[in-house]
Amino acid sequence: MASKLAAIVMAAGKGTRMKSERPKAITPLLGQPLTSYVLRALEQAGVEPIIVVVGHGAEEVQQALGDTYRYALQTEQLGTGHAVMQAMPHLPPDAAYVLVAAGDSPLVTPEVFRSLYEAARTTDSACVLATALLDDPTGYGRILRNEAGHVIGIVEEKDATPEQKAIHEVCTSFYCFRADALRDALPHLSNQNAQGEYYLTDVIGILAAQGARVTTWQSPDPTLLLGVNNRWELAQAGNALRMRILKQLCMDGITIIDPATTYIEPTVQIGHDTVIEPNTHLRGQTTIGANCTLGPDLYLQDCTVGDNCHLFRSHLVQARIHAEVSVGPFAHIRPGTVLHNGVRVGDFVEIKNVEIGEGTKVLHLTYLGDATIGKGTNIGAGTITCNYDGERKHRTVIGDGVFVGSHATLIAPVTIGDGAYIAAASPINQDVPPESLAIARSYQTVKAGWVRKRRESKHGAGGTEP
Ligand code: UD1
Ligand code: CA
Fold first, then answer.
1. Is 239 helix (H, G, I), strand (E, B) or coil?
2. Could you tell which of 80, 104, 129 is best to mutate to test the pocket of ligand 1, judged by most ligand atoms within 8 Å of the CB?
3. Which of 97, 146, 188, 257 has the most CB atoms around it within 10 Å of its CB?
4. Residue 242: helix, strand or coil by DSSP?
5. Which ligand is nearest to the CA of 24?
6. Does a structural domain hold residue 137?
7. What domain range is 167 assigned to?
């Protein structure tokens, strides 16, 4: 877009209806701050600079939204008109048009901003106002028109008469103003209304009364413009955004079996031909390769996964999974875990901060923590690394081609050399050299006929136990 355009995003409000300690602007929505969606849409439309009006929890909001924007401080939240007044001094002097948006409408797309700007220029309007026709307009400002159909103002719900409340065309809080018209109108705002606030919506009435041209733009899809004022609206916006992400993934060559139970955040990337089974959650900085099958019942947060992996019914956080790996069911993979190509992790296995080499198998009932394990090793059922002595953590190092028998207890720090064998049920607290067998358990005694002898001594020959 032309350099003569700037944007103001209003994000200073407390968000009282959210009933939260946290400022509304940074309420998480699919893992991202609510207002960041509006900012991203503006950026994608090429608008620069973007001035964000902050107030309630300003520091926290600014930190969460990042430093690519200009910030204007509204110390007291005296209304949307007052918010825009605080931003005006931050506008570049040569900005001819200014887009104004509420920071609580996360479904907006770059096209909405492009359309508003385009309409403002081509119609030479003092303001293009985005309106929507809603079946239930409750809570929104209503658009007032004269008999000729021209916009003459906006009335807020709380100030509206019953007749005005019956109007279904609403203000969406997306506008494109000619900067000079906005600058001239703002000083005329008053706070003589039901909420005692300076309403930005009153600028429309002021401009119309001056005879300036006010045009409306109606989105083909009114849901793009919906605001989030309470947590039910937050849930609905979350669902709409989620469906948008899932649809795009499907268009990009990913199979999603059941969108209703699939949760994928906008930060996630997925390679082609991957299949997402029901009840799968992919969150944060997660990247998935091609040709994987994920789920059912899978949770991944901040993980990278290579091609051709099969992960299901498991929970993984901050793990790096290479190609051809299988995990599940019922595995818990914790931060710092690296699984190289072809590793197989099975049921009831917990792994934390462990690097596991190519082709190694950890298939049943195992805890591995703070360890390095080589290639082609077999970790038997019930193996435990004892990494914590009550005060400090210690490492276990296991080489390539090792066979760890079932129920081995590896008391760290301990090193097991390449090709070694650990006998089942052995507690190992000394290093095992390569190619050696370590066996650490008391030997079994068999007392032949012991049961029969005991029975006979209790009940006589031929007797049976009661
Ligand atoms: C506003 C509009 C209403 C419209 C609706 C659309 C006004 C007076 N009303 O109502 O006509 O239908 O949006 O979603 O404009 N904010 C500030 N400083 C303030 C007050 C608000 O920065 O002093 C910010 C809020 O953080 C929020 C946005 O402005 O992001 C809108 O405020 P909100 O209180 O949600 O207004 P609505 O009641 O939704
Ligand atoms: Ca709102």
1. helix
2. 80
3. 97
4. helix
5. 1
6. yes
7. 5-225
